[in-house]
């Protein structure tokens, strides 16, 4: 495995792959990051061309762990120096990444990925072992062959390698097409960031007393507002259409709540009851704590066999975890 970009996600992935005994090496543009990771005993370099040339020689699966704005230059380098390598990514948007990959002629070797894990911190110092343990790892299915035709064999092999990589680091694989993924994460991730920023600003405008009284509910609701602003902008601004839809629905709910609170003869029971029920359904599906038992459906399939794509789309529609059977 070759990990390009050693921030929180890429660096944690390099840690876990190495701990699992998988041959893995990485690259980062920051000399300080390379020195820190090397001091921790990891095989990393600041020379992108040398790293990609090594990936080509060793038939490594390349993992793009850089922000979306850095992807065009990175994909150009991959197309030049490692054109035969399988390629995946860990970014929080999939549609725009897929378009960039297609523009660089690499779609036949690309399988998108998105681990639903992280913290508000960034950089090598924020990396953690077991960050992905029990977390959902979305593996995209755009370009999946219907019946394992010979011309699709390379893509299918790469797809299986990406699934296997996620499983190696303890993640739970859920398949999704890029557009479906982006619509879902707009609601449960990107919207969360926007609301956290708004909540943090509103509290701050309440002055010193408000901040002194802030306790666990405020801390939990605004945790992701501590994320580096550039990363928040990158994920939200690269998923505008889906995020605007989610924002519109949320603003309608908030506007109705405001109207009900402004009228002493009305109440907000509708929103509170609906929100409570939604939270309970989330807990029932995902478990109350990370790594705890879940009720997520589980589907086993044989990649490339007749009907497997229908199984993938069904798994997507019910948010099912998948496991691979040997072909």
Automatic annotation (TrEMBL):
Domain called Prephenate/arogenate dehydrogenase: residue spans: 1-302
UniProt keyword 4Fe-4S, yes or no: no
Gene Ontology process terms (BP): tyrosine biosynthetic process
InterPro entries in alphabetical order: 6-PGluconate_DH-like_C_sf, NAD(P)-bd_dom_sf, PDH_C, PDH_N, Preph/Arog_dehydrog, Prephen_DH
Superkingdom field: Bacteria
EC number annotated for this UniProt entry: 1.3.1.12
Molecular function per GO: NAD+ binding; prephenate dehydrogenase (NAD+) activity; prephenate dehydrogenase (NADP+) activity
Keywords, alphabetical: Oxidoreductase
Pfam families: PDH_C, PDH_N
Keyword Oxidoreductase: yes
Alphabetical list of Gene3D superfamilies matching this protein: 6-phosphogluconate dehydrogenase C-terminal like domain (1.10.3660.10), NAD(P)-binding Rossmann-like Domain (3.40.50.720)
NCBIfam families, alphabetized: PRK06545.1-6
Family label: Belongs to the prephenate/arogenate dehydrogenase family.
The name this protein goes by in its record: Prephenate dehydrogenase
UniProt source species: Corynebacterium variabile
Lineage: Bacteria, Bacillati, Actinomycetota, Actinomycetes, Mycobacteriales
């Amino acid at each position: 495995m070759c990990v390009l970009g050693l921030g929180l996600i890429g660096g944690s992935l390099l840690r876990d792959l190495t701990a699992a005994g998988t041959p893995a090496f990485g690259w980062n543009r920051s000399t300080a990051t390379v020195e820190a990771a090397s001091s921790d005993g990891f095989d990393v370099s600041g020379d992108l061309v040398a790293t990609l040339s090594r990936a080509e020689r060793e038939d490594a699966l390349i993992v793009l762990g850089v922000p979306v704005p850095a992807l065009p230059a990175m994909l150009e380098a991959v197309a030049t120096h490692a054109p035969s390598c399988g390629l995946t990514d860990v970014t929080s948007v999939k549609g725009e990444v897929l378009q960039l990959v297609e523009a660089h002629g690499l779609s036949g070797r690309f399988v998108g990925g998105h681990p639903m894990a992280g913290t508000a911190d960034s950089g090598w110092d924020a990396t953690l072992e077991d960050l992905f343990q029990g977390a959902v790892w979305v593996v995209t299915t755009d370009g999946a062959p219907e019946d394992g035709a010979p011309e699709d064999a390379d893509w299918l092999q790469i797809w299986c390698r990406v699934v296997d990589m996620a499983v190696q680091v303890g993640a739970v694989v859920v398949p999704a097409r890029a557009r479906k993924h982006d619509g879902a994460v707009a609601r449960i991730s990107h919207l969360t960031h926007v609301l956290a920023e708004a909540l943090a600003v509103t509290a701050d405008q309440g002055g010193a007393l408000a901040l002194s009284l802030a306790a666990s509910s405020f801390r939990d609701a605004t945790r992701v507002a501590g994320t580096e602003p550039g990363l928040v902008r990158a994920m939200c601004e690269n998923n505008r259409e889906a995020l605007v839809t989610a924002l519109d629905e949320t603003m309608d709910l908030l506007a109705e709540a405001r109207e009900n609170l402004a009228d002493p003869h009305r109440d907000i029971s509708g929103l509170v009851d609906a929100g409570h029920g939604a939270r309970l359904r989330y807990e029932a599906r995902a478990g109350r704590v990370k790594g705890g038992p879940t009720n997520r459906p589980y589907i086993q399939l044989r990649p490339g066999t007749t009907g497997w794509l229908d199984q993938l789309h069904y798994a997507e529609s019910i948010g099912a975890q998948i496991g691979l059977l040997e072909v």
